[in-house]
Amino acid sequence: MAEADTAPIAPPARIGLIGLGRMGLPMGRRLLAAGFAVRGYDAAERALAAFAEAGGIPCVSAAEAAAEAQAVITMLPDGAAVARVALDGEAPLIRAMRPGAILIDMSSSAPLSTRRLGERFAEAGLALADAPVSGGVKKAEAGTLSIMVGGSLLARIRPVLDAMGSAIFETGPLGSAHAMKALNNYVSAAGLIATCEALQVGAAFGLDPAVMTDILNVSTGRNNTTENKLKSFILPETYDSGFGLALMTKDIGIAVDLADALERPAPFSHAVVGFAREALARLGQEADHTEVDRYLKLLAAEDR
Length: 304
Ligand code: NAD
Known about the structure:
Distance between the termini: 69 Å
Oligomer: single chain
CATH topology of the largest domain: Rossmann fold
CATH architecture of the largest domain: 3-Layer(aba) Sandwich
Keywords: NAD, Oxidoreductase
Organism: Methylobacterium isbiliense
CATH class of the largest domain: Alpha Beta
Protein name: 2-(Hydroxymethyl)glutarate dehydrogenase
Domain 3-hydroxyisobutyrate dehydrogenase-like NAD-binding: 175-295
Domain 6-phosphogluconate dehydrogenase NADP-binding: 14-171
Helix content: 40-55%
Order of helices and strands: EHEHEHEHHEHEEHEHEHHHHHHH
Bound molecules: nicotinamide-adenine-dinucleotide
């Protein structure tokens, strides 16, 4: 193996970035600010234009963004989209990437499909790491994401991840970070739904939701929703956190599928994903995840 294929990938190395949406765009900005040469691709023209405005080099295809890159990052909706870009079509990443290059899938993908993709990449002499993130759009903008890393490539990709995150954890073999991410998001979604339900019951009883929030935040019910979402997005009913309900529902589904594949009883995850799927069917694919609060209000209005 050439030395270039074992050394850490540091600025001004060339990085391909596929997926320039709510998360991919600010992550691209951080990579550019750190001094990487970033070539980006997104299926949406608007996303490509925003990336060019941020100083990145827009490309007409994923293959063009990946050519000559030492690492290619995918920040796509799910593992199915990653597999399509990586394996399907006329110029998939598996053929476009240079030998020894690493695909870093930072999307919240399904762990078992990540393992399968890793086997295909290994056969082609390419490496794969799963490195999903937590923290949302604000932390992506600030470069302070939490990043979970599966596989054995952290030493090589650390400078790339350092440009985007401030807490980096190794979770084990390939796929383990995607498993961790789905389980985290299941716990987070359960907290969101429980919190919105409790606030609406409390409000119906005459409690002030703002006072409830303050009490929860210094009590045992405290969670990410009480601390970071109630006053910003839910109580003012702006519902503009930047994390879609469709993505949250996908993540809980991954956690449920994992429990089922491992034959672990998970009745509460099944209940949570059922609720999220009903809310998504009612509110539509564009809804923000904080709109589960609005869904509960719609249910309450119908019951009257
Ligand atoms: P998004 O929908 O805003 O962006 C996804 C982008 O991928 C879009 O711009 C879309 O045009 C592009 N895309 C889809 N298919 C494509 C293809 N085949 N080729 C090229 N581009 C394609 O989603 P997001 O919020 O940026 O989330 C991306 C990933 O990060 C998801 O897996 C999500 O679960 C995860 N995530 C999101 C957040 C958040 O707060 N938004 C936080 C942590 C993790």
